[in-house]
């Protein structure tokens, strides 16, 4: 109820009026059934604008730290995350990664939409980075289509390190669903998982027209920590 209240009566009307996003490809979202929406990730604002233009609810997997903050800021962040349909996950690896996968599979198994950022983190500089193969494993285990999405200019609206968005237009491009059913039962093959992930990243890069860098974004942030703020 809170999600729909924020979407249709509070955040939705306000953001659409102020920022006037343009959207291409809304018809590519299936009317029913589970599907993964895989997007590039330029700004924290990405998880706000995409749900505004979908008739169906979408859930995102977000790092658990967003839900455990203290004081007024912690409450505001937690409320924001819940209002935009985000679910806490532990990204520390090992059993935590397996739990995250199971959370995603549970959402897809219920016939719902799941939002994922294959790069694993926000781009530190507006470029597109190498995708993590967890998204490919989820596609094969759930047996659902995956839809590439490009967020456009959101990093200019709300750059890393800022707390309030700037007044400017942004765009959302929703590509055609990708079908990887030909690889059914091969989720244990790391070469297949990498192939699927690379094909997905190619489609996302084609839509967004970002420069592609074949390294993980996290490695770039580790070398220059100020880029992750």
Automatic annotation (TrEMBL):
GO terms for biological process: phosphatidic acid biosynthetic process. The keyword Acyltransferase applies. It comes from the Bacteria. One of its GO terms (cellular component) is plasma membrane. Keywords: Acyltransferase, Transferase. The keyword Amino-acid biosynthesis does not apply. Residues 35-154 form the Phospholipid/glycerol acyltransferase domain. GO terms for molecular function: 1-acylglycerol-3-phosphate O-acyltransferase activity. InterPro entries: Plipid/glycerol_acylTrfase. This is 1-acyl-sn-glycerol-3-phosphate acyltransferase.
């Amino acid at each position: 109820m809170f999600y729909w209240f924020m979407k249709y009566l509070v955040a939705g009307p306000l953001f659409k009026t102020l920022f006037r996003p343009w959207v291409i490809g809304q018809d590519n979202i299936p009317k029913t059934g589970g599907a993964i929406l895989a997007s590039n990730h330029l700004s924290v604002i990405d998880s706000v604008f995409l749900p505004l233009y979908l008739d169906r609810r979408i859930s995102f997997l977000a790092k658990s730290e967003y839900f455990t903050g203290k004081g007024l800021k912690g409450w505001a962040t937690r409320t924001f995350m819940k209002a935009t349909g985000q679910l806490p996950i532990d990204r520390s690896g090992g059993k935590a990664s397996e739990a995250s996968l199971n959370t995603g599979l549970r959402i897809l198994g219920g016939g719902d939409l799941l939002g994922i950022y294959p790069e694993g983190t926000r781009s530190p500089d507006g470029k597109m980075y190498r995708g993590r193969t967890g998204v490919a494993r989820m596609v094969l285990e759930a047996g659902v289509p995956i839809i590439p999405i490009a967020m456009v200019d959101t990093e200019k609206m709300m750059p890393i390190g800022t707390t309030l968005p700037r007044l400017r237009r942004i765009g959302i491009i929703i590509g055609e669903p990708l079908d990887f059913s030909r690889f059914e039962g091969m989720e244990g093959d790391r070469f297949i998982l990498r192939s699927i992930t690379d094909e997905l990243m190619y489609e996302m890069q084609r839509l967004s027209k970002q420069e592609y860098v074949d390294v993980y974004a996290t490695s770039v942030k580790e070398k220059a920590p100020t880029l992750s703020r």
